[in-house]
Amino acid sequence: MVSFHGADVQVDLQSATARKMLLQVFGFARLILARSQSLADALTEIGCPAKKIGIQRTGIPLNEYAYQERDNPIDGSWQILQACRLIEKKGLASTIHAFAEFRRTWPSARLSIAGDGPLRRSLEQLADSLGESANIRFSGFLKPDALRELYYQSHIFLHPSETTREGNREGIPNSLLEAMATGLPCIATRHGGIPEAIENEVSGLLVSSSADLRSQMQRLANEPELAKRLGKNGAAVVEKNFDLNRQIRQLEDHYLSLLG
Domains, the chain, ranges and CATH? Predict the structure, then answer.
């Protein structure tokens, strides 16, 4: 069995040698697991037989990320959050630009960017160039307990992922699923495996551009009942499709299926 998680099936595959080696893997393996249907589709495009592919999704420990209904802040002190590695495919520049526009309407809003990575300095410079350094907190890498507390303190979660120049795309981001599980209304892009977790207007909001991101942030701020409904439905999706215990049992079944 071989499992694929994202960049391992999308980046630096232009060379004939890389594709030849992957085809050898597909030939040897009896079962190929992908974290999302979008990655499974990418595997078939490369040449993996569809009959060998199974979907093994990320599991979220629901006992640690319990649903909690959010109320819009009465004083307009919106807490916006993105949690991820600070790398190109996470779309963090779009988040910062959208937040700067959002704050024109809601001057007490604050943005937290939880995580670290090679783009941190350039993102800090972007925040400074937009006059937002005092309103954007770069918290660095947080331990699970601290990040979980930040989910519950926040009102809107953003994850505007994008495809990099090398072709790197998301599966389904763990932080997005964690945020959804807590009831945090989420806005993300139609990208990679994200639409497998978020159904637009039902369990979250999907956007196609930075302008869309800004407008949908304003929409959630102006429509508190929509925000609550999306948060509740998002948590239900994670419980149904991404429960850790269920995913562990499924993975065990995959291994057992190969023993015969």
Answer: 2-56 (no CATH), 79-241 (3.40.50.2000)
